[in-house]
Amino acid sequence: MASENNTRIYHERQKLQFCLLHALNNLFQQKDAFTRPRLNEIAAKLVLEEPNKETWTPLSVLFKPHHNALTGNYDINVLIAALEDEGKNVVWHDRRKGANSIDLDGAEDALMGILLNVPVKRFAGLWKSRHWVTLRKIDGVWYDLDSDLDAPQAFEDSGRVREFLDYIIGHGGEVLLVLNNKQ
Q: Could you tell me how far CA 22 lies from the centroid of its own chain?
């Protein structure tokens, strides 16, 4: 990946398991575009709309159907609902097609960005989970805005983005395209 240019890039760093919150704010390039209370509200609304409501247990205070109240680990349903509330479409990329089928060089007003859900191992491989990562094209340059990174990382070109995406797909990651709705 190339070094950053002089473009001002918003980049939130990882705290607890709030990677979905950080990924959304990095995607929108704005502090507090989304907040914990707002994502919690979305998660609670999803529970109310769910046809098969979970039975309450004492652990339900912490482990809710769409997020962990203690660590903040939100699921894909919260992500999609949050983006749809902002007028975005989320398209799950068909991993069988590889990254070459993604139009990375099209108009920036069509593809807002890419969200990745990647498997991670922490604590010498004892803890396995998943992590949300944002890729976004800003002023013609694609950036890796992973909240685990110290700073955004610029890609040299769209070919490098495709190589990165193919690597992610090949290692169990999921690719979600975030599209701007055309009014």
A: 8
Q: Give pLDDT, residue 54.
A: 57
Judging by beta carbons within 10 Å of its beta carbon (0-12, 13-18, 19+), is residue 40 exposed, middle or buried?
Answer: middle
Model confidence over 8-60: pLDDT tens digits?
A: 899 888 765 668 899 999 999 999 888 888 988 888 887 655 655 555 444 44
Task: Name the phi and psi angles at 49, rounded to 5.
Answer: -85, -10
**Residue tagged 């094209």 (tokens):** 137
E-strand ranges in 96-140 read: 111-122, 127-138
User: Which of these, 138, 170, 177, lies nearest to 154 by C-alpha position?
Assistant: 138
List the structure tokens of 77.
């349903």
How far is Cα of residue 175 from the mean position of the Cα atoms in its chain? Answer: 9
Residues identified as active-site: 19, 131
Q: How far apart are CA 30 and CA 24, in angstroms?
A: 9
